[in-house]
Description:
Blueprint: E1 13-24, E2 27-39, E3 44-48, H1 55-63, E4 70-73, E5 76-79, E6 82-83, H2 88-91, E7 96-99, H3 103-106, H4 113-125, H5 129-142, H6 148-153, H7 161-173, E8 179-183, H8 191-208, E9 211-215, H9 219-225, E10 228-233, E11 236-242, H10 243-248, H11 253-260, E12 321-322, E13 349-361, E14 369-370, E15 377-378, E16 383-395, E17 399-403, H12 410-417, E18 425-430, E19 433-434, H13 441-446, E20 447-450, H14 454-457, H15 464-474, H16 481-493, H17 510-522, E21 528-532, H18 540-557, E22 560-564, H19 568-574, E23 577-582, E24 585-591, H20 592-595, H21 602-609, H22 651-655, E25 660-664, E26 667-670, H23 675-679
Parallel strand pairs: 3-9, 3-10, 7-8, 8-9, 17-22, 17-23, 20-21, 21-22
Antiparallel strand pairs: 1-2, 1-4, 1-5, 5-6, 10-11, 11-12, 13-16, 13-18, 14-15, 18-19, 23-24, 24-26, 25-26
Amino acid sequence: MADPGQAGKGPLLDLRGLSVSYATGRGQLAALQAISLAIPRGGAMGLVGESGSGKSSVVLAILGLLGEGATVAADAARFDGEDLFANAASLRGRRIGVVFQDPSAALNPALTIGSQIAEPLVLHKGMSQSEADARTIALLAEVGLPRAETVARAYPHQLSGGMKQRAVIAGALACEPDLLLLDEPTTALDVTVEAQILDLLEGLRARRGLSLLLVSHNLGIVDRLCDDLTVLYAGRVVEQGAATTLLDIPAHPYTRGLMGALPRADKGRIGRLVPIPGGLPDLTKPDPGCNFRTRCAFVEPPCSAPQALVSPPGEEATGRLARCRRAGEELAWPVPPLPERTVRGEGETLLEANALSRSFALGGWLGRVSFAGGRPHLAPQAVVRAVDGVSLVVRKGEVLGLVGESGCGKTTLGRLVLRLIESDGGTLRFAGETVPQRPGAGFRRRAQIVFQNPDSSLNPRKTVAEIIRRPVTLFGIARGAAADEEVDRLLTLVRLSPAYRGRYPHQLSGGEKQRIGIARALASQPDFLVCDEAVSALDVSVQAAVLNLLDDLRDRLGVAYLFISHDIGVIAHVADRIAVMYRGGVVEEGPAAAILSPPYHPYTEALLSAVPLVGARGRAASRIRLAGDVSSPSGAGGCRFAHRCPRRIGPVCDEVAPPVIEPVPGHRIACHLPPETLAAMPPALGAA
């Protein structure tokens, strides 16, 4: 029960000295070590740190879902005056809601969306089923889902990623909680849907007075949504304070390191990303001193002594805390300049696609059964043109970035240029030769792919050596002892020790698994790689290491990339040229610097305006908010973006295919707007 003297007073959530440990075969693993944080009513706290820092343990501890293998201790853990741990089961779902990272995993595929949202209303609020159903429709409408009644009757697989995430948020809000826990809620979403979710959360916070705890590795999102920020490293709070202050001038070296590893869409390719060297310490043997010192660029002998979490000198009044004896010093995390390199994107053509197309039929035969006219018959099958006459060129050693919303055809195009799926039309040439629909081993050896999710693309029953060795022997690169030497060489190439040979995928971190995926792709000594969202699920430091690795391999081996990503900051950093896709077609293509500043296609402008940037909170007010989504109906024959375009000029956009404008050689924009209008657009990323 709540303490009458505490309820309604002080912070809504108050954790002091929270420690969590897990029993392992090597002893107790100290996942959290005496962390403290407080969230006021209506406040928003960000929680950042690398994978393994303890962020998820904080969320699960608040929910009371750590399980029997965990040991939890705290000096105090209160929610609105109540003992949090004693009342976690009654608070969970009723006063504390949660939104997990993957809505597809959070939603039951066998139940309708409406039934899943109505369940807590019946359970916690005591509503009748009809009352819960009516409230469910109102909640779906509140989170911005059109045709709420239809969505309530739908199953999860019938919704887009953004719609599923909105439905999960609606379920979390069903019982009108006071606190919403958000665990990487937008990681899998493209930039426009992500911006819609952020708008939704900001609006709900303003209307309902919600408190938020946001776990994210996207520092731009944290800067936009959160008032305060807690930085976790290896189970300890290393810095805490106002979000804008910490992200503007970080005090702790670890926070500085996170900022140095962050690719910035508004900065482009201004320097080499700086991943934090090394990895997390062994948490079964907690270090009494600074546990970051083995990775710190500013380490000194006194750092081996225990470090207190205190205000840096001169900042006692700001509320900032940092666990570092050098926190008050002006220390800049070392950012090396870009190495000298040959000019990219002006060499010999390697891959040339001309008018590639691919359509897919929607649904099975059962969904086509119609009883119109009184007798059953099969209605015509709906068809979606995933790739619609796309032409592109990738030169030797070039990085072509491919961006666009989910469903625009990026992944399908990547598979078409590798001939992993057959095209309906168009031609493909590689190194001057036509590639048939079913190419031989020669093309397969020279063109490879790095998939988004190494957990599903690496065989869990094979060791690292077996995974990498297979393409080495399959393509005749080496055999016997020479193949073993080649496996070691590839591991070294992706900066992993040959000691990893005997490990299985489940024994590797996310970044290590992705490096194995890259090593496997390089095993055939290819000239061309498709990287399909290869870094989207990685935290910023591991992401920086993988991006630097791909960049170095390009320089050392001359590998060309088609780099597919919804993270425009990543694309801005790695790409020489960028192609922007919408509804199966390329609406703009050109050098990276030209794509990131006016003139650009209105769709590109909308994408760029939706990018969350650190230090640019005011941009949200001027963001271009697109109606509908990429699957919304559009007219035939005109501009493929006309149905959503905020700069639409009339029927010509719906009825006539747009001309291709070329503001400068090599920069092509398919748009009816005159060049001077495109050139007069304000910079969507600010003064880059």
